[in-house]
Amino acid sequence: MTMVEVSPIRTAQDHEVALAEVERLMTAKPGTPEGDRLDVLVTLVEAWEAEHHAIEAPDPISLLDFVMEQRGLDRAALEPMIGSRGRVSEILSRKRPLTLEMIRRLQANLGLPAEVLVRPYPLRRSEAA
Question: I want to staple 9 with a disulfide (CB 3.0 to 4.6 A). Which of 14, 47, 91, 116 is the partner?
């Protein structure tokens, strides 16, 4: 077994060098020394990017707004999962939080990730308060 020599990615410059090397090796055949080097470099690049360029998951309401827009859904489409028209309005306007039962129905019916739906998010304060 041949050991593939690579260096850790510690800086943005190291990252750029590794990306250039990955691009150069993109046509390497699996199981060859070049293919092995490519595999190791891709793993290192992905780890560095996950640490330095992580994308934060959206809050639950932002996710719902995005999904409604992408799928062409209106507020009425959420009623079976959230409740009455008024309840949907309260949820989408951040006046009321999602309940566990709503989260379960949204996950089951729309395939939305529960780990995003359960995240805490800011609510609007009531004008009466």
Answer: 14
